[in-house]
Amino acid sequence: MSQTKTLTTASGAPVADNQNSRSAGPRGPLLLDDFHLIEKLAHFNRENIPERRVHAKGSGAHGTFTLTRDMAQYSSAKLFDTIGKQTPTFLRFSTVGGERGSADTERDPRGFALKFYTEEGNWDIVGNNTPVFFIRDPLKFPDFIHTQKRLPQSNLKSAQMMWDFWSHSPESLHQVTILFSDRGIPDGYRHMHGFGSHTYSLINAAGERHWVKWHYKTKQGIKNLPPAEAARLAGTDPDYAQRDLFAAIERGDFPKWRVCMQVMTEAQAAAHYENPFDVTKTWSQKEFPLIEIGELELNRNPLNYFAEVEQAAFGPSNMIPGVGLSPDRMLQGRVFAYADAHRYRVGTNHQHLPINSPRVPVHNYQRDGSMAFGNNGGAAPNYEPNSYGDAPKQAPQYAEPPLALSGAADRYDHRVDSDYYSHAGALFRLMNDEQKALLINNIAGAMEGVTGDVVERQLQHFYNADQAYGDGVAKALGVQRN
Q1: Active site residues per annotation
Q2: 428 and 335, same structural domain?
Q3: CA distances from 87 to 226, 359, 399 (A)
Q4: Is 295 within the bounds of a domain?
Q5: Which residues are part of a known binding site for heme?
Q6: What's the pLDDT tens digit per position in 124-141?
Q7: Which residues does the annotation place in the binding site?
Q8: Which domain holds residue 441?
């Protein structure tokens, strides 16, 4: 029989009575010197950290990445140095627009944020279950997210503001078409693909850079929910996706994804007919075929949701030698925004938390701040350069090769190419009749109550993508066109 543990305060002092507050007599008022009561109430008031502004509702699991292909020609990163090598990972799935209490079965993109705990530090790829996004420029991100949240006056969701924004942002049409297709509501998290979405880079030992798109192909097969079933589940089991993921891992049915990449050389990118760093477009898989490099498996549930899922902090700024970023505008904006969100939401030292902490020693000159764990650097110097041989020093051998840039600094129109429609139109034409009908009905239902001027502007985008696309939505909305 195990020995009973003594209840203690947070400072380790034994608690004699956890049932009754201190009071002035049996019927008298409570006393301020009841430090145990004060500590419990004060801690309870602070148990909720601010939810993520986006991706608030999430589920996560631990797993492993296993390398299955020689990557020496592409990257010098050590997690890629030996076929069969396994790297611990943590993957957080999420919805994007909803709050923490929202339903898992809303029509919404799904976040697919992956952290690799490598021997060179943590590497994060922050993506979605779609290969593209609604906008190209991070300057518009706060505006876009506001339309996915609630009206300032009524605190209600608004189809009007969503479609008003999209109708003024034609670059959103490719993602909108995916969102309202049959893949707009995945059947849980195990039955959907994941994508890095942005263009990233890999750098080999010779200093050669390749641009790369990351794809995670589900081995469970694609499954999606019909709108009526999604609505039923939202009312009966709003945590459907989290329940499904947790239960599958608990019973040993570990979900897996094939890890693949598309690769483009710097010369190919310079000559490409489209901007390869435009996150509203995909790369042709005929021109740049998928290369399978490994397998991702989720095989361990968190022991504590708050500690491991809610406090998990992902950001594209978390990189290791042999990988890098790209001139993708949205990616560059996220390099700042994600890390800054964690500093605000979790704390200045969020990297110290076990779920975010690298599995290798950390040597830097950052000190102090909220939640500075450990000895806070001890007596070591907190500045650099310094005269101490055992203090951390920069390592020039890990520098990235130079990236050639040119052009005068200005605010360039990100819509200058005028091609907002070819990818959305091509996707529409790939659909069978049943998929097209579902897409059109989903869009028409979502545009209910939207004003005529917005409807007309959005219809023009559908027509520009494909005549049948526009005709179908117009008919479903009961709009007569000349």
Answers
A1: 55, 128
A2: no
A3: 36, 11, 23
A4: yes
A5: 338
A6: 999 999 999 999 999 999
A7: 338
A8: 422-477
